Amino acid sequence: MRAVWLVVGFGFFASAQMMTPQIHRPPTEADLNKVRLNEDESGCKDSALLARVPGCNIIQCDTKADDGLEILMGRSDKGDMISEVIDGESQVLYYLCPGRLAPAALVKAAEVNLGKSGFKIVYSGKDEAELPLLTAMKDRDWLQISTYLYFDLSVYVQTVLKQADDADPNADALTASLMKNERVTLHSVRFYANRAVLRPDGDRMLAAVAMAMTKHPDLKIRVESYSDDDADEAASKQLCQQRAVAIASWLSERGIDKTRLASQGLGPAKPLADNTTEEGRAKNRRVELVRF
After folding, report:
1. pLDDT interval class at 170 (50, 70, 90)
2. What is the DSSP code (8-state) at residue 161?
3. What is residue 193's three-state secondary structure?
4. Contact 83, 125 (CB under 8 A)
5. Which of 182, 201, 205, 184 shows the shortest CA–CA distance to 192?
6. What whole-number percentage of the chain has pLDDT above 90?
7. Helix (H, G, I), strand (E, B) or coil at 99
8. CA 236 to chain CA centroid, nearest Å
9. Is 282 helix (H, G, I), strand (E, B) or coil?
10. Is the pLDDT reported for residue 125 higher than 60?
């Protein structure tokens, strides 16, 4: 998530990335004297979703009407950061806190308050700089807390994102279909020819699947991959199995627990259309999700 470090008074914080917070040029002692606790920046207000940690004050705020923000969702099995870009209205608040309030304590306070408000904790851990970070969601509201240190003071950055109505148009419909029919076809999820490599145009649909599973933690799915009958059946099944595993891995890397995922390559089994036509073969090459 791209953010602008604090521009307080005469602007002594340099530009940086929220995911890897750092100060690019050392502030001077004179800069430090310009920071005052218990004095909010003019025009900045708390979010209605989360009360501030007592003793902290707002030193900068930023609001965007409609923009995509990168929200941290967790870490992969290899320890890499996993994030998703979500569109919507956003508000970023920078809070300066006394040194006695350590970053870990700030994040823990936010986690407790969000849990009481019905938020689901998507990720609670550390960012790339090994500083505490928290991501939570409720309905279409996303909230992320990142932290850093400034001399003997602590700062936490609170990002609130109101997800756009059309940001995941397939997630709710997909969930409803799975609950009703126990099976749904992912028409837009495709692979490169003869490979178990996902085409990028299916990321939006898979993101909707991940979103649905995040919203419904009891939902478990089996990924089934099918082919036409244009190749050896054993080879087709093997490729389909690799493709089903690739989709399950994609979801797992986005924070979905592996125990909620299964994969199966079925090759040319259960054709939906006539394999003697190109149109029919295209329909038979598909990915389905099955609730279990």
Report:
1. low
2. E
3. coil
4. no
5. 201
6. 42
7. coil
8. 33
9. helix
10. yes
∠ CA(34), CA(40), CA(43), 5° rounding? 115
Mean pLDDT of 139-147: 89
- Kind of pairing, strands 132-138 and 141-150? antiparallel
Return the DSSP state at 259.
Answer: G
Query: 274: closest CA among 223, 224, 230?
Result: 230
Distance CA 41, CA 255 (A): 36
Q: How far apart are CA 222 and CA 262, in angstroms?
A: 4
Q: What does the alpha-carbon distance between residue 40 and residue 17 come to, in Å, rounded to a whole number?
A: 23
Q: For residue 134, give both structure tokens.
A: 């928290």
Do residues 60 and 6 make contact, with C-beta atoms less than 8 angstroms apart? Answer: yes
**Tokens in use for 162?**
């109101």
pTM of the complete model = 0.56
Q: What is the DSSP string of 21-70?
A: ---SSPPPHHHHHT--TT-PPTT----TTSPPPTT-EEEEEEEEEEEEEE
Phi, psi dihedrals of residue 284, rounded to the nearest 5°: -75, -25
Residue 190's identity, in one-letter code, is: R
Q: Which residue has the tokens 């592996």?
A: 258
Contact (Cβ atoms closer than 8 angstroms) between residue 73 and residue 123: yes
